[in-house]
Amino acid sequence: MSHALQIGDVAQETGLTVDAIRFYEKQRLLPRPARTAGGFRLYSGESVERLHFIHHAQTLGFSLAEIRELLLLRDEKLQACSHVRELLQRKLESVRLKIEQLQALESDLKGALRNCDRSLKRHTSAEEECCPVLEQIAHADRQEGKS
Length: 147
Prior knowledge:
By secondary structure, the chain is mainly alpha-helical. It folds into two domains: 7-61, Multidrug-efflux Transporter Regulator, Chain: A, Domain 2 (Orthogonal Bundle), CATH 1.10.1660.10; 83-146. 69% of the residues lie in helices and 3% in strands. The protein is built from seven helices and two strands; from the N terminus they run H-H-E-E-H-H-H-H-H. It has helices at residues 7-14, 18-26, 45-59, 64-76, 81-122, 132-138, 140-146, and strands at 34-35, 41-42. The chain has a two-stranded antiparallel sheet. The longest helix is centred in the last third of the chain and has 42 residues, at 81-122. The protein is elongated, with a radius of gyration of 25 Å.
């Protein structure tokens, strides 16, 4: 892409919103673009590539601070493979921890759903009884304090 693009065209090409592109500018992940006499932003092909990089890094779970660091390594053309490997290792550990937490949450939700199902089978809709899951939630802070 040899010619400059306006922000709407860049948004369409990158799959980002105009607001996201402006946000990346404000966060200084993207250099301020040149402007037309009328004040319209004009983006270079390099800026579009940079936006693709930012977007892909976010889909990999990198934070804006981590992306800033990756961009610095990329822009400075540093021998960065070991540093990037360390960032990836930390990110992978974080993802594994989140997976464990989500699996524990899934188990808790399945248990709560089983409690609801048992309670609904035992009681008719006309009976006034508190939901066992609401009781469990209400007393969870006291149970956690005991362990």
